[in-house]
Amino acid sequence: MESLDLSSMAASIGVSVAVLRFFLCLVATNLISFAWRFVPSRLGKHIYSAASGALLSYVSFGFSSNLHFLVPMTIGYASMTIYRPLSGFITFFLGFAYLVGCKVVILCSHWFYMSGDAWKGGGIDSTGT
């Protein structure tokens, strides 16, 4: 079986390869979530969810985005461990503070290094830019 030529597929529908990979992962999410029902144990479901989520985000955005996803996940689990009644509130505000901080750093580095060429070429990252 031939491997998929993503560049020709992306060109035929008028999007970049990064956007096509994101779309394919979005479609694959339906199949992966359907298979989740058949995982027998609670621990197995946690492992399946973590592994499939990490794989999909890796394919969509690359390895560095998986590292950025670890921070909000750690905040969420830590807040549930430390103070469960306010864990949603803590995770929401600290998670968004982290994302805003990352966005400010990204915007400053784009301005400083003039690295917006990849974005102009149709690239995508986990923040949507």
From TrEMBL:
TM annotation in the entry: 12-35, 47-69, 89-113
Molecular function (Gene Ontology), one example: acyltransferase activity
Keywords, alphabetical: Membrane, Transmembrane, Transmembrane helix
One Gene Ontology cellular component annotation held by this UniProt entry: membrane
Transmembrane in keyword set: yes
InterPro entries found in the cross-reference section: LPLAT_7/PORCN-like
Keyword Transcription regulation: no
GO biological process, one term: triglyceride biosynthetic process
Organism domain of life: Eukaryota
Classification via PANTHER family: LYSOPHOSPHOLIPID ACYLTRANSFERASE 2, PORCUPINE
Protein name in UniProt: Uncharacterized protein
Species this chain originates from: Arabis alpina (Alpine rock-cress)
